Amino acid sequence: MMNIAIANQKGGVGKTTTAINVATALAATGHRTLLIDLDPQGNASTGLGIDQKARVYSSYDLLVGNCALDEAVIHTQVPLLDIVASTQDLSGAEIELVDLEERTHRLARAMRTAPARRWDVCLIDCPPSLGLLTINAMVAVSAVLVPLQCEFFALEGLSQLLQTVERIRARFNPDLSILGVALTMYDRRNRLTEQVAEDVRSCLGDLVFETVIPRNVRLSEAPSHGMPALIYDMRCAGSEAYMQLARELIARLPPVREEAA
After folding, report:
1. How many structural domains does the chain have?
2. How many Å apart are CA 145 and CA 124, to the nearest integer?
3. What is the domain extent for residue 111?
4. Would you give the distance in Å from CA 177 to the centre of its chain?
5. Distance CA 99, CA 9 (A)
6. What would the pLDDT profile of 222-241 be if each residue is shown by its tens digit?
């Protein structure tokens, strides 16, 4: 199973929208996909239509050792897509983890309980911070997907995130790498958007995905209906962009991992 964290400590960059729709796109292309909602806000869970009553076990329970991964999994309305939902309990997890043994490796240990060959890809939707929850995610994965909003302040946040990845690689997870940077909320009518995109590409080169995710009303509407944009309106510009992004992502997955899956 290829494990990928979707992370950016800056809020409002389209991180959860990316998590939901990339996961849906991967499932639509035949990849058995697991999405772990590690954000206390639980937006990925709500955006996939998971009712609060269905969240018997959650990502919080995984972290504190109350259940195995398979027990926390909920099937979604999307074929081949499962989720480990988030609950409000997760909001206090950062404090609780401080006193637990191997506090930075709790999620990695829980994910090792996954049934063999159950999923091909696991995506982890991280909270908008670089605290213990995000660190747990980065320790548990081999790659990070970074959604980056096309605005000036996002560039400063990207630099901080890249430094964090380097620290995690040095201290806890030498296999960690950046899978790619996805430009989100792209508005071709805005000159600043074009300038930010040019700056990011000149700095990171091929690390930046060719596909850009446009500002799109349908992407914003879909979560209120409890469904991914790819189901809500598969022909909108946002859905088509996420399908193309998923194809690029699949092309970057290590061949050995894909064969093993």
Report:
1. 1
2. 10
3. 2-251
4. 14
5. 24
6. 999 999 999 999 999 999 99
